[in-house]
Each structure stands twice: as C-alpha cells, then as structure tokens.
Design goal:
Elements (H helix, E strand, L loop, with lengths): L5 H8 L15 E7 L5 E7 L1 H4 L4 E6 L23 E2 L5 E7 L2 H7 L4 E6 L6 H6 L8 E5 L2 H4 L5 E9 L11 E6 L5 E5 L4 H12 L6 E5 L14 H14 L3 E4 L2 H7 L6 E9 L5 E13 L5 H10 L9 E10 L13 H19 L3 H7 L19 H12 L1 H14 L3 E14 L8 E8 L5 E5 L8 H13 L6 E3 L2 E2 L14 H27 L8 E4 L2 E4 L2 E6 H10 L5 E7 L4 E3 L4 E3 L3 E14 L4 E11 L7 H19 L30 E6 L24 H14 L13 H8 L2
Parallel strand pairs: 1-12, 10-11, 14-15, 18-19, 28-29
Antiparallel strand pairs: 1-5, 2-4, 2-6, 3-5, 7-15, 8-13, 9-10, 9-12, 11-20, 13-14, 16-27, 17-18, 17-24, 21-22, 22-23, 25-26, 27-28
Helix pairs in contact: 6-7, 9-10, 10-11, 14-15, 17-18
Bound molecules: pteridine-2,4(1H,3H)-dione and dioxothiomolybdenum(VI) ion.
Pteridine-2,4(1H,3H)-dione binds next to α9.
Length: 751
C-alpha cells in the first residue's frame, strides 16, 4: 500500500490550500479590524467618517450595523461582537474597515476617531476574586473529609503555585472568508475547530436561521485549542459586512494583531494545603485555584471544570477539597489550549509533592510512586479508576530506561560539578477522555460509495495538522477491508455533517472515527445482502468483505469489491449512509459534582533530564523518556508525532514561554519576536515506549486519544530544573512560579 498522509505530502510541496491561499472571488473586499487600545473604559466618541473617505475604502461598519444580535458568547452571553458603550480589554473589536486591498483597509484604521474615558483596570485574578468579579459561581469537588484528616497526618503544610499563560503560536493566524449567496444565504470559510459554533454565532449576528449559514473548513494551519472558540469572532466579523454589503469579505489577522489580541492559555494562581503520613502517603489535599479568565467568559467555566477533574492528577487521595473560581479581569479573554485547564491543576499537586519530598527528606519519586492510582480507586468526582495503567507505565518506564541508574549518575554528576547541575524528574499523567460538557460527546459521518468503488467520507472532525483525516481514512478502509487509496476524506461542512462538536478534548478521531464506522456498517450490510443474491445464497451472514474481495462461507470468491459495488448500484442498492455516534455511559450531576464524566483515562509516565548552567541560569533539556498508554495505535507515526509535539509544547509552557502585561492591562508580548517557543535546537533526545497489549475497548479500533495527554509530560521539565537549582542552592525553598525562565533561575541562584 502506497498510502501516506496526504496532508503531509501536500504540506512539504507547498500545495495544501489554507484559507488565505484560496482563489480570490472577483469582487472580494478585505477587512481590517479597529480595536480598543484601552483595557477598560466608557466610549465617549466613535467617528468613522474620515476612515470611510480613505482611498480604496468601501465601507466601515460598527455595532449599529449588525443586522442581528450583537452577541457571540457561547456558554455565557457576555461577549459583544463589536464594542458598544464600553470596552473591557485591549484588542476588543470596535469597527470593521472594508477596502479593495488589505493594505488600504489597514491604512484607514488610523483615521478612526475613538475616545474613551478610562476606568479602573484589574489584571490579577486574586484581586478580581476579592472584588467579587466572577464569571460564574465558584465550584468545589470534595471527597472524604479533609478537616478530619489533617490531625491524622504527620506532615501538613500550605503553599502557593503560579502558572502562566501560553500563546498558541499556530502558524496560520485567525482568518475567515464569507461569501453572500443567493436569497440571503451565506457561505463561511473559517479556520475553526468548531464549524457549528461558527454557524450558530454567524446566524445570531446576522439574524438568520442556521439553515441559511453554511460553514466550510478544509484545514487549519495549527489550532491547539486557539480555534475552538476564538475563530468565531473573526468569522462573524467577516460575515456581517459580507451580508450587509453583499460582497465577499476576507479577514486575515496579521501575526502582530493575533499575538496581541487573541486568547491564550489561562494563567492560574493557586493555594494548596497537603497532608501526608511519614512514609509519604498523601492523606488529604485542599486547593483553591484562581483562574484568570480575562474580560469575557469564552470557555473559561468549562476549562475551570477540567482543572478540578485533574486536581489530583494520577494519584489516589482519600480526602480532597478543591475549589476553583473563574475571575474576570481586563485582559483579552483566555481560551482553550491543549489540556484545557488540566495542566494548571496537575502543576499544583506536583508542586505540593516536590515540597513534601523536601520536608520529609525523601525523593519526590518515592512519594509519587506510592500514591499512584490503582484499579478501583475513586476520583474526587465520583468516578472509579478502570483499566488503571498508572503503575504499569511507571514500572515500564523505570525498567525500559533504567531510571534508578540514571538517578545515581545525576547524583554523581552533581557531586563532581560545581557550576553545572543536573536534575531528573518523573512526571506521571492521567487525563480523562470526553468533553466534560456531556452533550458534546457525539459525532456524525456521511459516507458515499461511488460506482467505481471509491469512497467519500465526511465527518464533523476538522483537520488541524494532527492527522485525523489519515486516521479516519484508515478506519474506513479497514472497515470495508479495501485499499486506503480508495478513500477520500472531504472537507468539514455543516451541510454534510450537522451539529458538529468542536474538534477538541482529544476526542476527534475517537468519536468521528466511530461515526464513520457506523455509517460503513450500514453500507456493508446492504452490500452483503447484494453479494448473497449475486452468489445465489439466501443468507447474507455467510458473506464477508476481506482484502477487497467477497468471501462466502469462509472461502474467497471471484467477486471483488469494485464488481460488487457496481452490480449493487445497478440493482438499485443505496450506497450512501449517515452514521451517528454518542459516547455511552456518560453522566454528571453538577449539584453533587459527582458522576461518570469520562469514557476512559489515558495514563503514562515521563522522565525528564536537564542540565543547568549555574553561572548563566541557562538550561538544556537533555533527554525525555516516555512510557505512554496509546491503546492500539491507529497510526504509529502520527501518534508519535502527537506525543512529541505535545511534550515540547508542555516543556515550552513551563520553561521559556512567558506572557507579561502592563499594569494598565496592555499585553507586553505583542509581536512574535518577543515570544520564545522551543525550537529544534532546544528539542531533547526523546525516547518513547508505547505500552504493549494496551487495547482500549472504549474507543474506535481499540485506540486511545492522543492529542492532549502528553502535553502534561512537559511539567516534568519544571521540576527537573527546580531540582538542579536546589542542587546548587540547597538552602533555598522550592520556587513554584512557571514559566521557569532563565531570568527567574538566575535570580534564584544568586538572590
Ligand atoms: N473543550 C470542551 C475541551 O468544550 N470541553 C472539554 O472538556 C474539553 N476538554 C479538552 C479540550 N477541549
Ligand atoms: Mo481543545 S484545548 O481545543 O481540545
């Protein structure tokens, strides 16, 4: 089989068509967005008349030109498409300039008169909390009784943990193109993970039924959660002028604007209290997570929920009391990012364990190991661990890579070197798979078999570089037992697959693969009946499709796939089917905060080794070793790529990627050149081991979701560096303030 990932082939040749590569319609208008430079204020004056008179400018639209509702908030309706009355963050869209060229639209922006009376600005989530500025009521997950437990502990202490935001740095910036169709219909091309979210929001701002809005997604040039909710405003900002002016409109953010004004990973500030027995058993854990939500809700409440779900990571803790609050500040709204609040939660308990190790005079890995989840253990949210692979991945990692030997080498190195120190940290992960919003756990597919035996597959999943199209093609080919070259994966389009859930929560291949399979089974059933008739058999149960041939009663026949298909068509057999899949057995009661929210969990353990230059404060990640629970991999190359990419993104989050804000709420990271992401030279040697015999009956083809879980391995880099720092300054307390930039390291090493 010569099957390769079609997208990769196109990408390396520069042939793949991203949104801004599409041919331009003849009368296309280019949009540029005028946005607030003030983080909080009352609008006193907005005058666009001068801008309208600039060369090439066709029109300038403001909130009053929106034909429908000026509202795009999905979970909580608190987000205007265009500011009206007041502004709440730097970057809030105020007006849309439409011109013949992108440069003319941009040039006209400075002719907009916008006066704002400044109001007090909040940037700190704890301050917002103290002032009662909450996006929604805070939530608490509890199990056992922490208050009774503290007395039984040999060690109880409190601590604080900070983790910063993160820029998605997708290569393709936010963009959309909208074309007016006949009879008041519109077609929206969007670089979105969530076609239906875009469809609903566009229908809302245009005042149309959803059936008048078609959303089409070919692919994204990266997303990482940044296009789960935040592709929507840009699609709507193109839809309004396209509809009002009845001309096609394209809107593509420049990198500078994208970095400055679009949402990022939520920064968190957290307090914790932990109690342990002398031998390191965690008896109780309490935490308060202050999430910096930014100015509007976006997905913050949902992300907050996942922080609670992952508050105890892969450990069993009998007494838990964790509370989380989504705090409204005047920063650009934070949003989904790979891990979706999970990493922020896990970071806190890992910090608590590291500190406990110091206080108990143990190694962190001793404490981690004896607290790992076992079969049947209960999570604070009432779910029980099933198919626990925490200890297994831990053991396999240790054996595969001789981890204890590595620890003695690190100790030896640190004794022999004064100005260079090494650190080695283990990072176990446990990540729940399913949207925590239960109704989103469904997917649909539409499969057509054409007369020549080739196959067209549409699903609700979107391709963002993660290789999901390749996985779906393999699943479909495998289900029909035909050559994958016969299968084509279509664009994602709301007229072919409706009510799509976001391609998110690592669930895209799981759910859409299953939906596609369900559609295939229906066609197979009809084809088998047709084959039975052709072979003069009255029982279709004896028919099998195998390797492109029809088998009957366990024997290969002369009938092949292509002949069967054309003969079935001529007998007027339906060769198309729609499939729908709903993940079974999910439920959650928010009044009790208990239930069964996940189809399954993904486990794994990583070891991260670093070397710190104690003169310069610089560090290198030398090597990462991973034992990962991949289920039965659908495509090993793609899955290795996902683990590797997620790991590096996680390492970047806790090391060099730093977002800073001025006191007046202005993001200080406003160009690509001010933001560091790991590059190829920073990439360590990565050794990866997938657990053998790790089938997972809860996902398609016994696989496991891969998109997000390995991100959290990156957290190990933080604690490896922290260990190296403490090897140099054993007198100092653990620093828990991610990202651990070189500047912070240097300040720590030399006060
Ligand atoms: N998106 C969402 C997600 O809407 N719900 C989730 O639970 C989720 N989890 C991870 C990433 N995106
Ligand atoms: Mo998401 S963080 O878009 O899975």
């Amino acid at each position: 089989m010569k099957f390769t990932n079609t997208d990769t082939r196109l990408h390396v040749r520069g042939e793949s068509v991203f949104l801004d590569d599409m041919n331009e319609p003849g009368n296309l208008l280019h949009a540029a967005i005028f946005y607030s430079q003030v983080a909080h204020g009352r609008i006193i004056r907005l005058d666009v008349s001068q801008a309208k008179a600039q060369p090439g400018v066709f029109s300038v639209l403001t909130a009053e030109d929106i034909p429908g509702e000026n509202q795009i908030g999905g979970i909580i309706p608190d987000e205007a498409l265009l500011a009206e009355g007041s502004v709440h963050f730097v970057g809030e869209p105020v007006a849309i300039v439409l011109a013949d060229t992108r440069w003319q639209a941009k040039a006209a922006l400075k002719h907009i008169v916008f006066e704002v009376e400044q109001l007090p600005v909040i940037t700190d989530p704890r301050e917002a909390y103290a002032k009662g500025e909450l996006i929604a009521p805070e939530r608490t997950f509890a199990m056992g009784d922490v208050e009774c437990a503290w007395d039984k502990c040999d060690l109880v202490f409190e601590g604080r943990a900070e983790s910063g935001g993160q820029e998605h740095f997708y290569l393709e910036t936010q963009c959309a193109q909208v074309e007016p169709l006949e009879n008041g219909h519109v077609k929206v091309y969007s670089s979105t993970q969530s076609p239906t979210v875009v469809q609903k929001a566009a229908a809302r701002v245009l005042g149309l039924g959803q059936h008048y809005v078609e959303v089409e997604v070919r692919r994204m040039g990266g997303a990482f959660g940044g296009k789960e909710d935040q592709a929507t405003p840009w699609a709507c900002l193109a839809a309004v002028p396209a509809y009002v002016l009845q001309r096609p409109v394209r809107l593509v953010l420049e990198r500078h604007d994208d970095i400055l004004i679009t949402g990022k990973r939520h920064p968190y500030s957290s307090d914790y209290k932990i109690g342990l027995s002398r031998d390191g058993k965690i008896l109780a854990f309490e935490a308060m997570y202050y999430q910096n939500a930014g100015a509007v809700a976006d997905l913050s409440t949902s992300i907050l929920e996942r922080t609670l779900f992952h508050g105890t990571n892969s450990y069993f803790v009998p007494n838990v009391h964790i509370t989380a609050a989504s705090c409204r500040t005047n920063l650009p709204p934070f949003t989904a990012f790979r891990g979706f609040g999970g990493p922020q939660g896990m970071f806190v308990i890992e910090a608590a364990i590291q500190e406990a190790a110091i206080r108990l005079g143990k190694s962190p890995r001793e404490i981690q190991e004896i607290n790992l989840l076992e079969e049947g253990d209960e999570f604070s949210y009432g779910m029980f661990v099933h198919q626990a692979r925490a200890k297994r991945s831990w053991q396999e990692l240790k054996e595969q890579y001789q981890i204890e030997k590595l620890y003695s080498e690190v100790d030896k190195f640190n004794q022999e070197n004064a100005m260079q120190k090494k650190g080695l940290a283990l990072m176990p992960i446990c990540f729940g798979i399913s949207f925590t919003t239960i109704f989103l756990n469904q997917a649909a597919a539409l499969v057509h078999v054409y007369q020549d035996g080739t196959v067209s597959v549409s699903t609700g999943v979107t391709e963002m570089g993660q290789g999901v199209n390749m996985k779906i093609a393999k699943i479909v080919a495998d289900t029909f037992s035909i050559d994958p070259d016969l299968v084509k994966i279509e664009t994602t389009n709301t007229t072919r697959c409706a009510n799509t859930s976001p391609t998110a929560a690592s669930s895209g291949a799981d759910m859409n693969g299953k939906a596609a399979q369900i559609a295939c089974y229906q066609i197979i059933k009809r084809l088998k009946a047709s084959a039975a008739a052709l072979l003069h058999h009255n029982d279709s149960e004896v028919i099998q499709l195998k390797d492109g041939k029809v088998w009957c009663e366990g024997r290969e026949t002369d009938l092949d796939w292509k002949t069967l298909v054309i003969k079935s068509y001529l007998s007027r057999v339906d060769l198309s089917a729609h499939g729908h899949f709903a993940v079974p057995n999910l439920h959650f009661d928010k009044t009790k905060e208990k239930g069964n929210p996940f189809a399954y969990h993904v486990f794994g353990t990583a070891a991260v080794e670093v070397t710190l230059d104690c003169l310069r404060g610089t560090y290198e990640v030398d090597r990462v070793m991973i034992a990962h629970d991949m289920g039965r991999s659908i495509d090993e190359k793609i899955d290795r790529g996902q683990v590797h990419g997620a790991l590096m993104q996680g390492i970047g989050w806790v090391t060099m990627e730093e977002l800073t804000y001025a006191e007046d709420g202005r993001p200080l990271i406003d160009t690509a050149s001010k933001y560091k992401v790991p590059d190829i030279k920073f990439t360590p040697q990565v050794d990866m081991h997938f657990l053998a015999d790790a089938d997972n009956q809860y996902a398609v083809a016994n696989s496991k979701a891969v998109g997000e879980p390995p991100f959290m391995y990156g957290i190990g880099a933080y604690f490896a560096i922290a260990e190296a720092m403490r090897a140099f300054r054993p007198d100092k307390e653990l620093l828990v303030d991610a990202p651990l930039t070189t500047e912070k390291v240097l300040r720590y090493l030399y006060d």
